[in-house]
Task: structure prediction
Amino acid sequence: MGGFEMSGKTKKIFWKVAGPVLRRALNKRFKDVSEISIQEVNRLLQKGEKFLLLDVREKEELDLGYLKNSIFIPRLRLPEKAETLLPDKEAPIVVYCAAGVRSILAAKTLKEMGYKQVVSMKEGIEGWKKAGFEVESKSGLTSEQLVRYSRHILLQEVGAEGQMKLLNAKVLLVGAGGLGCPIGLYLAAAGVGTLGIIDDDTVDLTNLQRQILHRTSDVGRRKVESAKDAIARMNPDVKVIPYPERLTSENAMKIFQNYDIIVDGSDNFPTKYLVNDAAFFAGKPFVFGGVFQFEGQASVFFPKNGGPCLRCLFPEPPPEGMVPS
Result:
């Protein structure tokens, strides 16, 4: 390829997209490499059959889970590592990777090195998890979470450690309307473990073209209850704490103290400035947002970390009636 080398992240995306096509091509080319189904591997493990499990993925992929008692050798390191870690060339070996492509190549390499009983597991660890079979993980995530958040875990900027932080995070969302609804959906989808939602309004028919947490059957209900139900349907990992009340100077500090981050989805300046002031005194990061028709603004204010607050930039809210909503 003219000296071009893919990064680790690009490799993962490449194998995911091109994997099924390559696997069919490899099956034709490497007819001497036998494959075994994930169901058969599971059956053999349940029977207590003796064989070696060889995981040939890259180190960072192991956060996605692996089969218990596996030996780990990245595929490209097999020529230098195999004979040390796999000294018995007569022992049966089941090789697996993410989707069953690299394992075919790895099995071919091992056969060329003189290993007698090598098979590649079809569909890899991805298929194994989709079938509902158990995997091991040092991350603390369950098998279902490893599947649900797998695209996060593959990101170096997130990984399993970052996903655990999201699951342990507590975020307060102010407002469950046009701005708060998509914020709530994305926070819940990402796996934020505790999501507080404060809003004293009820669902109106005019809300439904943009407030996507609510449905026609929710008209007349409290927005926080409608939002709670919608999030529960989408991600049971998320605990929603509803506050069916208006944010005021009397309740703001009491509520804010229980959360790590405050996210503003309100639709009026008095509330935004109240959120700013309470977040300032509570020492909490304040994620600011505002939308009008086709324009929007977003920012993060965290004076405790050395930055400005909203009042530092705009000392006073605009006079009532000066700004359309």
Q: What stands out?
A: The chain has a mean pLDDT of 90. The CA atoms of residues 111 and 257 lie 61 Å apart.
